[in-house]
Amino acid sequence: MTKPIDILREYPRLLLRRNAKVREALESMTETRQGFSVVVDDEGRLLGVVTDPDLRRALLRGVGVESPVCEAMNPNPVSAPADGDEASLTALFRQHAYSHVPLVDAQRKVVGIARLVDRIAVKRTRENQVILMAGGTGKRLLPLTKNTPKPMLRFGDKPVLEILLERLADSGFRRFTISVNYLADQIRSHFKDGSRWGVELDYLQEDRPLGTVGSLGLLSPTPQHPLLVVNGDVLTSLDFQAMLDFHERERALATLCVKQHEFQIPYGVVEIDESRVQSIVEKPKHRSFVNAGIYVIEPAILEWLKPLRELDMPDLLRLVRERRSDGVACFPLREDWIDIGDMTQFLRASREFERGGDAPT
Q: Is pTM, for the whole model, over 0.85?
């Protein structure tokens, strides 16, 4: 009998104690790139598991990063006996859509973690077409964009758009289309047909400004799979495959990627009722979800872009919700993300690049 392959020795941070914070689960998943953690009690017995989708759903519910991880975990996980055999474990993975399974002993103590990819070949290549929106004039970044399109501004020796394309290619995407308008020849001459990066690449050429989404009406023929649409001025370590999986599970017409943004009012905020003070809150913090500029849309929506006209993504998503109130899903981005659309953000990303020696995320 062949014993199960165990990855816990390689990734000990996948094991979290019951008093761990959501932040620790986020850090563990980011460091190990496993998208999975196990929560145990003080004796090491299995309490639950936390997956990437669990964390994203918890963030949408308002669970904070300093909240107990138990508020985000699945308390009824499937596990397998540590003294079982590989054949039984492989059958378990085939039967259920699990990426990882805790291995437990007779006392329910976690002694290992089994992983799907060690047993069953998982196809990483996606058939989904990726649309990179790179047609804007970048007015907020003048004078940097006077003679250079915003997505072609460089970090080190690479344009922003190249960094983004490489990350998507590394995630298993092979079919790309770049929507171009302003100084389009610079983008075309740099990327050509995409063969340098091992991808297929073509272009949507706007003959007039069509907004942040109108150029998708130029797509022909209509794609067969959901489209991944990404603004060309975004840098992120997002798990793009996880976002597509989420979109398919939600059966949405469109999925919007959001990032939680926190800001603090630098003054004491006074709440009043007519002429009477009700409360004073010193320098309160506020949290909101902001649009991250990354979307998945169903091909059927493209018909709503005809006749060809200028249209921004918020307007398209509004159309979707008017036709189907639950048609737009929301995917919270827990990974690093930065939009270089204005000078402040661009300079911040540049500083991070100089400090880290790698492309900013």
A: no
